[in-house]
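Example 3.2
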Amino acid sequence: MAFAWRAMDAFCEEDERIVGHAADSHHRIDIRRTSRHLVVRGGDGIIADTTRPLVLYESGFAPRSYVPRADVDESALTAAEGQTFCPYKGLASYYDIAGARRAAWSYEDAWTEVRRISGLVSFEPDKAEVQLDGTRLRLEPGQGVVPHGVDRDLTLDEAFPGPHS
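Structure, written as tokens:
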């Protein structure tokens, strides 16, 4: 089944508007606190160093660590142009690090179900050096986010009506 998103005024489940694409009832997200040591390096310096990341486990994807901003050298992050939308987490803003485009991201106002990651920063291990307990993380084949389906070609305004910048 496919939805012709541009042909519809809205898609709702009960009284809530669904944006981006219809939810998968088998898709799961769990967030866990950990005391493991996470270090992120980029360019010549340390971008993040924490023993209190949150780990987000999402069906079909590699676990992602989210770092409190107090543990991030924000001067090393350069806001990148554009945002993307995840129907499970919300609107993501991106950051470049030492020439690596979109090497980090944050959901500044994540959906209620995943509110714990709001404002925290996550790092792409194939664009920045991310170490967990001294072991460098690398994405395995198939663990990256790959847009697919006709509904993924929506513009930000089509997927997420309302103010965003």
